Please model this.
Amino acid sequence: MNVRQRRGVILLLLSVLCAVGAFAGVLAVIDDVQSKVGPETTAYRLKTDVPAYRTLSEEEFEQVSMPERWLPETAVTDLAGVRGKIAVTPLRKGSLLQSDMVVDRPALKPGEQEIAIMIDAATGVAGKITPGAAVNIYATFEGKHEGEKSVSQLIVAGARVIDVGKLTALEPDADDDRRVGEAVPITFALTTRDAQRVAYAESFAAHVRLALVAPGGDTTVDPDDRTYTLDGDTQEADR
Model:
């Protein structure tokens, strides 16, 4: 082996040693990063905005992987824990889902049953009604015969709201001119008699309106104030 060959072998060995050293350095950096970051775990991020007090759906979240040490203690790692719950505040797209963002949906009490009716924004206090709220339900009935006056009646006082659904587009109905373009299904917890009153009004009243009761307010209504007619109001004013 001449001098030139020996020199080439030495340079080749030096190149190999440098490559091994660089590879070892990369492995050391990766190991250092992994030791600082730690193992990863599953979390969930919102794919869309979710309004407050609406029941959550699993389709509204996407699964993401995050370093466990960077994950908040309140982060939700299993969607089974949020089934049937509602959002406490408006949730924004891209936010990490956390347990303090949701609460249990209001439950039925003994003797109560759920009943839902479609309410548009104008008659539903423009989105201010939320689960747990108390509302008075009013229905306006048109006179059935010629000359018969329309009457407005308080059909349920202090009805408890347990769920507010999504804004839904309604199909046009030629037989029902009361239908609006969009409405929100609102679910109440009512006794059997009150549920019957609401079902009747939803089917036959010209309009059904909700009036939000102040939190902690008295829901008792004087019997004389449960029915209203314009003629009756005029007569009282003239006295």
Notes: The CA atoms of residues 153 and 227 lie 4 Å apart. Residues 113-231 form one domain.
